[in-house]
Amino acid sequence: MTTSQKQEPFNPFDPTGMFKDVRYGTLDAWSKMMIQMVNTDVYAQATGAILDAWTSTSVPFRKAMETVMTQVLSNLSMPTRSDVISLGERLTNIEMRLDDLEAKLDEKRHGPGKAAAGSKAKPTPGEK
């Protein structure tokens, strides 16, 4: 029995009391045994080997599913994962160019030395 459970005295009128005690004892024994087994290097190595084998055998299945999903999405006129990634990269590139343009405009507006300090100190009318 675990320490969090109270030890109840034996009650002869409780038909399930003995089964409860056996269950708690069995669960406690299994728990201790499993904790000891899982905390060994052999278990960690075996788990790693199983995960490596599973990962290497699941690659063809994953690629097949990816191909099927790409075909289904294109048939439904929906963007694929690569389409969304490409769009994200393009938007990032546009955002970087806009930042560069804004920095050049600030530089021309405030002069070369004041652009970096001025853009942080005084927000433009559209900024919050």
Globular, elongated, flat, extended or rod-shaped: what is the shape? elongated
- Say how many strands there are: 0
Compute the CA-based radius of gyration. 33 Å
* Helix proportion: over 70%
Distance between the termini: 62 Å
Q: Mean pLDDT across all residues, rounded?
A: 85
Low-confidence stretches: none
Portion of residues in beta strands equals: under 5%
Number of helices: 4
Task: Characterize the main sheet.
Answer: none
Secondary-structure content class: mainly alpha
Count of the separate structural domains? 2
Order of helices and strands: HHHH
Write a brief caption for the model.
The protein is mainly α and 128 residues long. It is built from 4 helices and no strands.
What does this structure look like?
By secondary structure, the chain is mainly α. The chain has 2 domains: 16-78, no CATH class; 79-122. 73% of the residues lie in helices and 0% in strands. The chain has 4 helices and no strands. It has helices spanning 17-38, 41-75, 81-110, 115-121. It is elongated. The two termini are 62 Å apart. The mean pLDDT is 85.
